C-alpha cells in the first residue's frame, strides 16, 4: 500500500515533530510513507472565510499531488474534513482522492485494523475531541481506543469534553471575546483532571489550549496524540 503523508500547514510550519511521529508510527507498523513535495494548503481557511474561488485551485493541487497514493493520512481532523467533505463539491474530479484521505486514527483502526501500536507513555493524560473530528468525521472514540492501549498511560476523562475549545480557525480572531471565554472553560476543565498532558487530534486546537494553559501557569503540556503513539514500548 502506498501511503502519502498529508502534513497540513499548521504541522508543517509549527509542529513538524507531529509529522515525523506519524511516519515513525506507520513505519514501525511495517509501512512505507511518501511525502509529495507538491502538497500545499488544503484551502480550508479560504473556504471557511468565504473565499471559495481561492480554495478551488488548492483542491485541484491536492488531488494532483496525492493521485498516485492508495491512502492519504493526516494528523488533523479539520483538514481531513475539508478534503473529504468540501473538495468533491469544489472540484468533482477530486472525489476519488478525497475518499482515500484519512485522519490518523481512522486509518489505524478502520484500514489497518490496529489499536495497540506498541507505545508507552507513563503519564497522566486527558483527551480533547476537536470539533471537526467529532462532528464532521465522526471519529467517535477511535483516538481514545488507541490511547487506552498505550502502556503505562493514565487516561483521565475530561469534563465537558465535547465542548469546543474556542479556536475554530479564524473564529478565534473574529470573535476573540467569545473564543477567550470558551478557552477559559476548557482550560478549567483540563486543570480539574490533574493531567500532566492534554492531547487531541488537531494541533490547531492544541495551540489555542496550550497557549491558554501557559498564560495561567498551569503545569500541563499540550501534545498531539500521534506523538504519544509514536513513543516506544520499553
UniProtKB/TrEMBL annotation:
Pfam families: CCG. This is Cysteine-rich domain-containing protein. The lineage of its organism: Bacteria, Bacillati, Actinomycetota, Actinomycetes, Streptosporangiales. GO terms for cellular component: cytosol. Residues 4-83, 125-209 form the Cysteine-rich domain. GO terms for molecular function: oxidoreductase activity. It comes from the Bacteria.
Amino acid at each position: 500500500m502506498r501511503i502519502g503523508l498529508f502534513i497540513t500547514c499548521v504541522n508543517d510550519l509549527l509542529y513538524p515533530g507531529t509529522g515525523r511521529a506519524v511516519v515513525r508510527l506507520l513505519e514501525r507498523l511495517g509501512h512505507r510513507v511518501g511525502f509529495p513535495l507538491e502538497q500545499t494548503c488544503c484551502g480550508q481557511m479560504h473556504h471557511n472565510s468565504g473565499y471559495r474561488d481561492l480554495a478551488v485551485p488548492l483542491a485541484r493541487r491536492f488531488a494532483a499531488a496525492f493521485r498516485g497514493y492508495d491512502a492519504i493520512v493526516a494528523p488533523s481532523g479539520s483538514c481531513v474534513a475539508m478534503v473529504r467533505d468540501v473538495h468533491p463539491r469544489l472540484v468533482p474530479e477530486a472525489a476519488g482522492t478525497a475518499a482515500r484521505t484519512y485522519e490518523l486514527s481512522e486509518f489505524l483502526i478502520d484500514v489497518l485494523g490496529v489499536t495497540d501500536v506498541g507505545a508507552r507513555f507513563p503519564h497522566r493524560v486527558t483527551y480533547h475531541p476537536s470539533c471537526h473530528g467529532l462532528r464532521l468525521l465522526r471519529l467517535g472514540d477511535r483516538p481514545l481506543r488507541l490511547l487506552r492501549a498505550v502502556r503505562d498511560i493514565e487516561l483521565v476523562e475530561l469534563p465537558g469534553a465535547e465542548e469546543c475549545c474556542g479556536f475554530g480557525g479564524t473564529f478565534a480572531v473574529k470573535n476573540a471575546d467569545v473564543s477567550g471565554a470558551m478557552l477559559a472553560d476548557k482550560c478549567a476543565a483540563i486543570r480539574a483532571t490533574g493531567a500532566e498532558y492534554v492531547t487531541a487530534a488537531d494541533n490547531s486546537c492544541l495551540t489555542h489550549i496550550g497557549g491558554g494553559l501557559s498564560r495561567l501557569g498551569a503545569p500541563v503540556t499540550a501534545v498531539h496524540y500521534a506523538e504519544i503513539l509514536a513513543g516506544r514500548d520499553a
